[in-house]
From TrEMBL:
Top-rank taxon: Bacteria
Keyword Cell membrane: yes
Taxonomic lineage of the native organism: Bacteria, Pseudomonadati, Bacteroidota, Flavobacteriia, Flavobacteriales
Key word Transmembrane helix present: yes
Pfam families linked: Polysacc_synt_3
Subcellular localization(s) per the UniProt record: Cell membrane
Protein name: Lipopolysaccharide biosynthesis protein
Main subcellular location: membrane
Species, as recorded: Aequorivita echinoideorum
Protein family membership: Belongs to the polysaccharide synthase family.
Membrane-traversing stretches: 45-67, 79-105, 111-132, 144-164, 170-190, 210-231, 251-269, 290-315, 321-342, 363-394, 414-435, 440-462
Length: 478
């Protein structure tokens, strides 16, 4: 299969996978938000940083090394498998012992048991990380899609049922644990690879030398991604964190879908042509334009109708979340671009640069957040948008060193899309506030249709490269 057809097929199946998975996830989250209170989501927001840090340490960047390494065998896979499991058990007990201190930090005694149960998720994940990596390395995204569906449906069913019968925060925990457990079982059943009782310290050292820098980068990324949760949870009401956590989750759904698609497909794809620099640079430019062609109007459009959308879907008790959602959608517009730029560093094995980039960005985030924190919770949330723009400048500096494609060149290739997206945002925002009074449904529907038509028609008449690439997808699938 050609490079273009491989990319197209991968994008299609990854898109279907993420749309199905995220679609069910969104539906479940909406129902849970209607059945539960902001406080219960705030409690979960307090523990995410600790389980996320542990999950990052469990993987250690080893699976990323498996994907980029051209020649791997059973000793590689088995070594990483047993390493992940051993580290997961060690870290689980560390988190278990730290649970009382976590609860004391937030002054929430209920967190002790919540942390100890929810932390099981990264133990469960460690048992299937290698099988998942093998499917990704082979770009077998069709099978991954089919394997994801049972866990998503079963987990959502368990979570919603428990919430309906009054289990509160435990319904969220049960949903996520069940989803991951079912996926792990499915991967074990379907995967042709099974671990052998072999272990190579040389193999581990080889992958660790690449992966540990990614791990340190991932730790920094995880900590600073959750810095808002920590600050809001510590200094504001638990319910305020619940509003922020739901707004962040819903704003990240579309951005995560795009980021997941880009990451799953572009990383193994670019790794396969890493020795053909011109070919890689050309593919990189096309994918970048295509990503922004989708992400800019999607996230700006969601921001424009964010308030009536959240109020219509979740109810009036989530009004503060609606404002947070509008702001976070703007910052989320660039998330897929960030992921794509950073993937290039992994492709070329520059995990040292990857770590350096993360350190620089985290220093910048610390400064911006420290300043914004002085002006209240809304300024704190707005700082996420400022950070997203500044981070892009840092990411693209190192991209330019590899394929001679700097920030100005990237902006030059997407500025028309950005301009059309901004105009579309203004049209949608004005439409909902000046033509419809209290009808939330019309405030969402009419501006959305108007904005989509404007964006589609203007791109068609301007014959933007991204639209042309999208139209070629149909031919590539034949």
């Amino acid at each position: 299969m050609s490079l273009r057809k491989s990319a197209t097929s991968g994008l299609v199946w990854t898109f279907l996978d993420t749309v199905v998975a995220r679609g069910v996830g969104i539906a479940a989250s909406v129902l849970l938000a209607r059945l539960l209170s902001p406080r219960e989501f705030g409690l979960m927001g307090m523990v995410y940083i600790f389980t996320a840090v542990s999950a990052t340490l469990v993987d250690g960047g080893l699976t990323a090394s498996l994907i980029r390494t051209q020649q791997v065998d059973n000793r590689d896979y088995s070594t990483i498998f047993f390493t992940n499991i051993a580290v997961s058990f060690i870290l689980y007990w560390v988190v278990f012992l730290l649970a009382p201190f976590i609860a004391a930090f937030y002054d929430e005694p209920d967190l002790i048991f919540i942390v100890r149960v929810y932390a099981l998720i990264f133990v469960i994940t460690s048992f299937s990380a290698v099988q998942l990596t093998i499917f990704q390395k082979k770009m077998d995204f069709k099978k991954l899609m089919l394997l994801n569906i049972p866990g998503i449906l079963i987990g959502a069913g368990i979570g919603i049922t428990m919430a309906y019968y009054g289990f509160g925060v435990w319904s969220i925990i049960a949903m996520q644990l069940a989803t991951q457990a079912v996926l792990t079982i499915m991967l074990w059943i379907v995967s042709d690879w099974k671990p052998s009782f072999v272990f190579s310290t040389l193999k581990l050292k080889r992958h660790f030398e690449f992966g540990y820098k990614l791990t340190l980068s991932g730790l920094l990324n995880t900590i600073f991604d959750n810095i808002y949760n920590v600050l809001i949870g510590r200094f504001y009401a638990t319910a305020s964190l619940g509003h922020f956590e739901r707004a962040k989750t819903f704003s990240l759904y579309p951005a995560t879908i795009l980021t997941t698609m880009v990451g799953k497909v572009s990383y193994p794809l670019m790794a396969g042509i890493q020795d053909e620099k011109e070919r890689l640079a050309s593919a990189y430019k096309q994918i970048l334009q295509f990503i922004f062609f989708i992400s800019a109007p999607l996230m700006l459009g969601l921001s424009a109708v964010g308030k009536p959308l959240i109020l219509f879907v979740l109810g009036p008790q989530w009004e503060q979340a609606a404002v947070f959602f509008q702001i976070l959608c703007i910052s989320g517009m660039l998330y897929p671009i960030h992921a794509f730029n950073l993937n290039l560093l992994k492709v070329y094995g520059r995990s040292d640069w990857f770590l350096k980039v993360e350190v620089i960005k985290k220093i910048m985030i610390a400064v911006v957040v420290a300043i914004a924190f002085q002006f209240g919770i809304y300024a704190l949330v707005w700082s996420a948008a400022i950070i997203s723009v500044l981070a892009l400048a840092i990411n693209t500096y190192y991209t330019n060193l590899l394929i001679n494609y700097n920030l100005w060149q990237q902006f030059r290739d997407v500025w028309v899309i950005l301009l059309l997206g901004i105009v579309m945002f203004l049209i949608m925002y004005a439409g909902q506030y000046y033509f419809f009074d209290e009808n939330l449904f019309l405030k969402i529907l009419v501006p959305s249709i108007t904005g989509a038509l404007f964006y589609a028609v203007t791109n068609y008449f301007l014959k933007t490269p991204s639209l042309q690439l999208l139209l070629q997808f149909k031919q590539n699938l034949k």
